[in-house]
Amino acid sequence: MKTLTALVALAISFGACTTASAQGSQGSCNRACLLSTANAYLAALVAHDPSKAPMAPNARFTEQARVLGVGEGLWKSAVSTSTTFKIPVPDPVSGQIGMIVMMKAAASAFPAPAGRGAPPAGADPNAPVDIQLALRLKVVDKTITEAEHVIARIAAPNQLNALKTPRAAFFQTVPTAERSPRGIMLVIANAYYDAIVLGNGELAPFADDCGRRENGMHTAGVGRPADAPPPPAGFGDTPSDCAGQLTARAMTYIGSIDLRRILIADGEKGLVFAYSMFRHPMEKKSIEILNKDGSITERPMNFNPFDLEAAHIFKISGGKIHEIEAMGFTLPLYSKNGWSPFMK
Fold first, then answer.
1. Domain assignment of residue 342, yes or no
2. Which pTM does this prediction carry?
């Protein structure tokens, strides 16, 4: 309750200002309009034909944090769109829609990391492979002025199994009494990132039934699939719930979470879509972990420095985070995102 009260205080001016400004300029495309626009965009991707989508002549487009011309990147390699795994977050207030969707694309465009589902020798390099796309579209006067792709190649069978259909909560309408104002939803999502960086799960309002998946991997909380792999070596004694895992400091190897863009919210379904850049400087080769019994142990973290550009969808009801669907791909440390000239 204390956490929620603090979030409310922080959100009052932020939510009012962002809502008022956005409603005045982006209100021409309602929920149905945003959803149909996104579907048209996906169909155009598969057809390799931008003219089949309502693209503005000067639309800005990025993929994997790089500015590209409309028609480049996934526009050339997309094969099909999943009919079963798609989580849309339409937001008429900001005139944007965010989405995580499974697709198939040519393998040559998204090769699997070595040793992780790489195709056998002699396989067709253009055979369709599974990718996860985090898509953002900005719609002004019913035309797409911005499009953004963040893509991860998914190869492991257990991850693909978890990405056949989304968890039901993402499609459930939140009862009116359980809905949070838009500004508070955005602040709750931002609190999640603070809780990670500061190693304190109490900084975000996690529900007891919270579950988190990343690129199809179950990484915290309830809903763990039967075929999910065990925790990484050295983390089996730490709490696994969404809040407890963070308080155990299991993710403090993440140096900072920068370039947070938490701008899309769907109050009806209680969803927030956000992009961010997870920085991993890896200056320390071990971290201190708080175990379930209260003891503290060191865990090795022998990784090279890297960034992870990530997309998250949060399910928020009753002022608490119930589900998290996340995905991301790696970049060199201190990368930019294609939308800001800055690194923070």
1. no
2. 0.91
